[in-house]
Input
Amino acid sequence: MSTERLFDNTEIAFSLKSNSELNRAYLLFKMISYEPLVKVGKSLTNFAINANLPVDSVIRATVFDHFCGGINEKDCLPVIDAMYEKGVSSVLDFSVEGKEVDSFFEAASEKTLEIIKFSQNKEAMPIAVFKPTGFGKPTLYVKKSEGISFTSEEQKQWDRIEERYDMVCKLAKERDVELLIDAEESWMQKAVDDLVSKMMQKYNTEKPIVYNTLQMYRHDRMAFLKEELEHAEANGYFLGYKIVRGAYMEKENERALKKGYPTPICESKAATDDNFNESAKFILDHLDRISLFAGTHNEASSYLILDLMKEKGIAINDNRVWFGQLYGMSDNISFNLAKLGYNVAKYVPFGPVKDVLPYLIRRAEENTSVAGQTGRELMLLSKEKARRRS
Ligand SMILES: Cc1cc2nc3c(=O)[nH]c(=O)nc-3n(C[C@H](O)[C@H](O)[C@H](O)COP(=O)(O)OP(=O)(O)OC[C@H]3O[C@@H](n4cnc5c(N)ncnc54)[C@H](O)[C@@H]3O)c2cc1C
Output
């Protein structure tokens, strides 16, 4: 079957959405397409949360329910099961951000361990994930990345971060659950990369279990990927990469400008697109050693990967190639791919409403451009609304 216009089928894309959910999604994307509203909404929400105003229910009924599976893992089960009936797997994502105390890091690593254990017996959840700043303070990652010496107290904290990584990666291998590690800001990424490479060398001995993330809006990532491959080949272990474009572009550019160093970000959107596509091709060319998790909502890149798979004779359900989208976005890619039998997983964020706000604000901000994702979502939602009316 030709995949040329595969993602245009809105009946399959929104098969899990009732008419009222479809209308709510339409209204939501309409609202967040209006940038001033997102700006005001962000300030008002932050104010209301800081003032302890009871805004949970408003947030829940709008952005939260659209972009999150629930406030805890159990809450997410109906969503996970419903999606799996359509062939779409889930990656439960504990999306609490911005907490910098040891008790939180312990709880987040415990949560990751629990999810790995839970995933082992749940076919719908073959993959787990965690965020580097969920396991330790950003300032420690930055110091380590910059080669600045730790105080003895900091060294102890860093050792504990390493233990947390080791604990979850070890369990992932024992339970045969793939484990993705997200990427955040470039100024702390070197420490993450070093640590994850160490984990891959230790645990990806038979196949990729531990996956690092490559943010392809960074112009240095292709070179990094090639170096990593050389090292893995020389030392006999496997690599796993989630490739994404990257979510922190404004922050990256602003910091580079402020501190007077060249921005690590590609010079244009087109350059990022080329870089992303090149990394996908490179991985598919080396599938015997590297597995791919393509985290993207970009249709052109997704079509390209489908074409490359076909060209190289890679089976549709080859476990070394996964497509990933975020819950609440690009269902047209996820559900149409799954219908044909490709491996697809959606990140399903969860956590207490107030604590997942930074994640939700990022989603709203990312979706303010009508030229981008929101335009696509609105067009698809209207098309499906019209189809159901006819
Ligand atoms: C499953 C999944 C997991 C993810 N995990 C992570 C993660 O661990 N870390 C992370 O940072 N992000 C992550 N993301 C978010 C991702 O990085 C993107 O922000 C988001 O997916 C939008 O990019 P896109 O590939 O869908 O395509 P598009 O919507 O086509 O691309 C938008 C992206 O292009 C880039 N871009 C836009 N304008 C320019 C410009 N002028 N110059 C250069 N580049 C530009 C930016 O990266 C922007 O986000 C994840 C996304 C998914 C779907």
The pocket of flavin-adenine dinucleotide is lined by residues 182-183, 213, 215, 217, 244-249, 265-266, 268-269, 272, 295-298, 324-326, 347, 366, 372-373 (CB under 6 Å). The mean pLDDT is 93.
